[in-house]
Amino acid sequence: MCRLETYYDTMPRTQADVEDHGPFTLFVSRMPWPLYARPRLGHTDSFDVLDVTAVRRRLEELRQPVRFEWTHEAAPSLVEVMTEAGLSVERYPLLVLDELVPAEPPPGVRVRFMEAEDDALAAAVAAVDIGFSPGEGDDLSRRDELARNLPPGRLALIREHIRAGHQRWAVAEDASGPVAGGSYQPCDGVAELMGIATIPSRRERGIGSAITAALSADALRHGVALVFLSAGSADAARIYERLGFRRVATACAAVLPSGPTASSGDGRQGSGDTR
Description:
By secondary structure, the chain is an alpha+beta fold. The protein folds into two domains: 2-93, no CATH class; 110-247, Aminopeptidase. It is 32% helix and 28% strand. The protein is built from eight helices and eleven strands. It has an eight-stranded mixed beta sheet, with helices on both faces. The model is unreliable at 261-265 (pLDDT under 50).
């Protein structure tokens, strides 16, 4: 758990300005996507509602979504405190890779890694967005429209992260183009798998599992010693377990009751549908 907590504190600093507020560290995003506050690394004392309220007010002042993230086992009292502060708490299985079980994509689908200038990157990002936020209409038409309309700054930052080695992106493609994607962020021998999602019309075929296996294998080849992820649900966690992951803890997120319940965009986000 210590290595995970260190990663959670270190990785966002590449994307954010950092403010300490009592027992919390607030990561003020420099990116087009918001970040969050976490318990300060090494803080072992108790938390109270006033601590949470102070950070909430700061986030509102910054016009950032109110969001706290933490590992339940590292700060077990926080669920009660967040609830008392009027926030809604979501829980996600946290898993680490023990021994990777390979998973091949289905016939007609290939999984590959993308470089910063890859022409398919916009469509891959759009496919992940659709995987996390299904909507009405044809998946492929929506993917293509989203790809055409991605904010240039967002795509430029993703390319910059890939170029700098802060992210590795994998895409699954069939004859229509990208239908799934995912990424990982390495830091000091630890990597988190993030944003693994498949467009709804291509699910139940094992594409997400193939993406997960490819990302994990690539991280290990590049010297990562610890691969982990937070699953979007207990059902998704069971799929990851079949790939060699083991549940070790529970990742928690607290937001306003009417706010988002899972990270999205290109910062930290849990892994979604792996089917």
